[in-house]
Amino acid sequence: MTGPGVAAVLDVRDLRVWYATPRGPLLAVDGIDLSLGAGECLGLVGESGCGKSSLGRAILGLLPEGAGCDGVLSVAGVAVMSLSPHERRELRGEQVSLIFQEPMSRLDPLMRVEDHFVEMITAHRPEVSKQEARRMCYETLASLGVPPRRASQYPHEFSGGMRQRIMIGLGIVLRPRLVVADEPTTALDTLVQAQILEILRGLADDQGIAVLLITHNIGAVAETCDRVAVMYAAKIVEVGSVDQVLSRPGHPYTQGLVASVIHLQSETLSSIPGSPPDLADPPAGCRFHPRCPHVMDVCRTTEPPPVAVGDGTVACWLHVPVGSHPAPHPSG
Amino acid sequence: MAFVETRDLRTSFSLSGSFLSRLAGRPGVSITAVDGVSLSVEQGHIYGVVGESGSGKTTLGRSILRLVEPTSGVVLFDGEDILALSPRQFRPYRRRMQIVFQDPQAALSPAMTVGAAVAHPLVIHGLANGQEARRRAGDMLERVGLEPAQRFLDAYPTDLSGGQKQRAVIARALMLGPEFVVADEPVSMLDASVRTKILSLLLDLQRSLGLTYLFITHDLAAARFVCDSIAILYLGQVVEQGPARGVYAQPRHPYTRALLAAVPQPDPARRAKKDIPGGEIPDAASPPANCRFHPRCPRAFSPCGLEGKDLVDALEARWTGLPEDEFAWERALLGGLLPQGRRLVVRPGRSGGSAEVVAFFERLRDEGPPAFRSIESIAAVGPMVVLGLSEGHDPTPVDVGGSLVSCHLYP
């Protein structure tokens, strides 16, 4: 959590992201609050289609054509919503960068690795000489375990894990305050995945960068993050410290999600019945109620408010004292 | 007796170079994706093949089914040497063995209804058609949990979720009543909550139909849950195999240990600093000599087959952990490092001559990490220092507490 007086690196209030579809607007992110401080690593987890990547792209100002968003979004104290496209481009790279799942598609196959760095650095900092930019490149690569002597090679000469390190290097060479990593290890093998997660953890610990790790891999979050936010059907249903949320999950969806992870101590296979709703036509009340083993009448009609639980919040009627539940709707 | 067995199975592909290199008469490059694999699968058991991408696990599964033709070796299916059979003789065996692919999206034709796709094997093999084929497809859909079948028979794959598509693919694989199923990463494309449902289904089908599975995966946690036996594959070779219980309780090969250490733990209380080996799986077209894991192995030593370039890597690994001044001194001492096969030629740098370089490597050999113990000779040749490395040899499988381990740490 961000302490009092410390400005959050990322501050999101009531953010909504929508896409136009033939059936009307689809809300992929529906009123989300999130904050992230320097040196903190926050995991954003949820099943495919829950809206977590849309949230990441909105933070970067990289939503596709035909998408819209509103709400409050500030990165390093800058209100992103009011920036021009040009100012947003400047913000990306200098204050915030994105690390993608597939690094090869983001590197120019005809450019040496060091030229990627020189171009990136001089575009944002015209006063930096080429020589100085190259020195920054070598230093960054070395810190990520890429031998600087390989900086003159082309992207195809590197393995998947090395390319992902290069992408991370390009993302951090200008010392941004925030790194958004969207499924950064999904395409990588087990051992390389562990290497990259260690690097992301190091960005937060050693350089004070705020890291937002978007993933469906609960294990990766447990190993890497300080806090975790759980997204279901375009909303955050639970947020809190990794220790609390993954060891003592408060929301029935989080409980189901954590129980469904197969790990090296698993004795049973557990799953959540049903499947996530269509975001173009989400259920009324709590969006998880059709799949929830603890569903009550109030869940079917009224959306639960976020309630403080331990060091975080849970949006579930089970955590609201019965006396505070809304009166049932009059019938008829 | 084993139900399915491979003996020294090898499958190579030739990458036949460019047009110009063929014109010049140069031989094409060949990749041995499966390199001498021997394993035996008991009837009614689940045998796990675990490896990272590039380990050859998918090619192994396909070679056993003869979906790709192995280059050499033996595949015994129910006692019959199926690689020796003509295509005509092999046909009855095809029906007894099936495969479930990783990507259900790619495995189903978008232009075919689910009912038609599931009934297709019956029609192809002339076992049923029309209403009879549709009825049997409907029964199988219900068997794999796509109920009521009426809702799915006329649906197209785009109408189905990822988990439902994989159920349809499983239904199609079971239509001909196979006894042996190769499941190639059947759940890796699915979300965690769907993954457990499909695994439960596969386990349920295996028990109720008495199936035998070859379960191919990169997910050690899932393999532990479903498999009776397990083989760990690295660059086309089995490094460790045995009863799953034993391999997980006491992994022996450094690669198996590294893989297990890298599995993310969802319980934050188990979070621990890991010692993950660096590097990645090398190019299968030019695999490392002798033990193929040696360039990444933290315990690699003399017999493992180290080469000059491995010593360069070991030096770089050492430098990342040194204080700045010691690193600067060593970097200045070693002006150039030129690996030549099992030799490393060192050009002394600014801060010392060949005598200092010789003394430096003598100290590393005696006190450094295991990789430097492979230095057999250190000689000043003119202005250069030449390091000769001891010759390695291939590790052979050794029985260690019930597991077969191919590693020089277990002589």
Structure description:
- With 332 residues, chain A is an alpha/beta fold.
- Chain A has two domains: 10-95 and 176-324, Rossmann fold (3-Layer(aba) Sandwich), CATH 3.40.50; 105-175, no CATH class.
- Chain A has helices at residues 52-60, 85-94, 113-124, 130-143, 160-172, 190-207, 218-224, 242-247, 252-259, 297-301; strands spanning 10-21, 24-36, 41-45, 67-75, 78-79, 96-99, 178-182, 210-215, 227-232, 235-241, 306-309, 312-315.
- Chain A has an eight-stranded mixed sheet, with helices on both faces. In chain A, strands 2-1-4-5 form a four-stranded antiparallel sheet.
- In chain A, helix 3 crosses helix 4.
- Chain B has 411 residues and is α+β, with helices and mostly antiparallel strands.
- Among the domains of chain B are: 4-111 and 156-249, Rossmann fold, CATH 3.40.50; 306-389.
- Chain B is 36% helix and 24% strand.
- Chain B has 15 helices and 16 strands.
- In chain B, strand 9 (229-234) and strand 10 form a beta hairpin.
- The relative contact order of chain B is 0.11.
- The A-B interface holds A 47-48, 145, 147, 159-162, 189-195, 197-198, 216-220, 222-223, 242-243, 246-247, 256-258, 260-266, 269-272, 275 and B 52-53, 161-163, 191-197, 199-200, 203, 218-222, 224-225, 248, 258-269, 271, 274, 276-278, 280-281, 316, 320.
